[in-house]
Amino acid sequence: MKIVKTIAEVRQQVKEWKSQGLTVGLVPTMGYLHEGHASLIDASHRDNDRTVVSDFVNPMQFGPTEDLESYPRDLEHDAKLVEAHGGDLIFNPEPSEMYHEGFSSFVDMTVLTQELCGLSRPVHFRGVCTVVSKLFNIVQPDRAYFGKKDAQQLAVIRHMVDDLNMDLEIIGCPIVRESDGLAKSSRNTYLNEAERKAALILSKSIRLGQDMVKKGEKDCSKIIEAMKSLITSEPLARIDYVKIVDCATMQQIPALDRPALCAIAVFIGKTRLIDNFFTEDV
Amino acid sequence: MKIVKTIAEVRQQVKEWKSQGLTVGLVPTMGYLHEGHASLIDASHRDNDRTVVSDFVNPMQFGPTEDLESYPRDLEHDAKLVEAHGGDLIFNPEPSEMYHEGFSSFVDMTVLTQELCGLSRPVHFRGVCTVVSKLFNIVQPDRAYFGKKDAQQLAVIRHMVDDLNMDLEIIGCPIVRESDGLAKSSRNTYLNEAERKAALILSKSIRLGQDMVKKGEKDCSKIIEAMKSLITSEPLARIDYVKIVDCATMQQIPALDRPALCAIAVFIGKTRLIDNFFTEDV
Fold first, then answer.
1. φ/ψ of residue A225, rounded to 5
2. Active site annotation includes A45
3. Chain A to chain B Cβ contacts (< 8 Å)
4. Would the pTM count as exceeding 0.90?
5. How confident is the model at residue B156 (pLDDT cuts 50, 70, 90)?
6. What are the two backbone dihedrals, phi and then psi, of residue A252, each rounded to the nearest 5 degrees?
7. What pLDDT does A122 receive?
8. Nearest chain A residue to B15, by CA
9. SS3 for A180?
10. Active-site residue among B34, B37, B77, B100?
């Protein structure tokens, strides 16, 4: 397992692999890897001859008041995890390697990004689409792996790949949870002991929503109200959104008459956490 | 020489060539090919084993009041020209093949597009960047060829390729002119006899600017004023812009103290024509 810092080194390594007829999987991450990332690396290792993990806290997808500076970083820990799960290369560039002076191009879209996290984080998906496009062009992978926890991100990337004719396959992998139900996230490290307990309200409300769908509830507003009321019962929680949207368009729908995503974003203290479920998986 | 209409056919053909170790050049065009395009195909044929010419009037780069509907088309003529100049494949998709229902992604940039044609044609470069990105992803060429007549387009595409780490080389080719000096353009076909004569004022003003630079004039406003005054002497001409900009940033400069582009856009009757020169080529 190698760690490289420059685009040229990644290109050279991938070119060498491709000349040997090997397939390449890419797992784009912002580092501080946990079992959620590990499951993506496992999936890539299973499907491809070689796996590249990018480990880059992308400044472009953070808003001016967000947690870019404090976002946790631990390359040594990441390297051990990548190696243990069969990854072959970590690409860990400095911001200046990815965004040189005069950088001004971007990739974005006019729908899908206007709902859910796109409302609370207006520059977020432009940053995600741009950096992911760059990583795809640098690594030129056969497949790329993203977690379903960032459900809107996964939908946005699938749509971008389809619209712009990018020549690779996008694989979405299931949410990985702590034993008590909290969805794994690098941001969980921000939580103090009381907040960590309070954060359980996210997965509890997800289970409540899933149960209602399982019992046949079709009225989205009833499901949303029940979930909101449960979340509000937790004093440390503040709702950013609880919404049910069409999987394809990310637009809100009144009734469960098509494949839908139920997505929530909740502040626990100062930490914004997200969770979700797809009605088709219930 | 083959003509194909679908992305899948292009991909299959290029994959076959690449599996044989052949290099591929791409010449993106909007069709109605003239000797300017022919020079690009010649250059690609010289540098690469195979040459793909895309022939697609891209709706996304036309503004609502522009000439999308009337833009001239003649695939039969184009096919003969491509074949005569050694091209191997024409990609001639319908708009619905390039922009399916729900299409909403785009590539754009925050600088370089804010001056010259970007001011008169606000959605133009977003359309150019998006369609060129798509063509690059579909064809995956080793090299792509663009004319220096669209000087700002060439600068924008070079910048996009660099910013987004697209893995190909961009080649800029010299302006090709009619024997009397008029820069070749598919839009010249719009001109009636009187306008065709009046249109010579563009290349005349370009030669005037070049002469002043050759004689050592460094004051951009003097060069611009002399060119404007010459163009204004032609009753059928109406100036859109006459500007001198930094080659790298496309920002206006007061003095010729760095590599610069002198670019003009002039309406002759209802037809908007462009021409330019690079001070380094004088």
1. -65, -40
2. no
3. 76
4. yes
5. very high
6. -65, 145
7. 83
8. A167
9. coil
10. B37
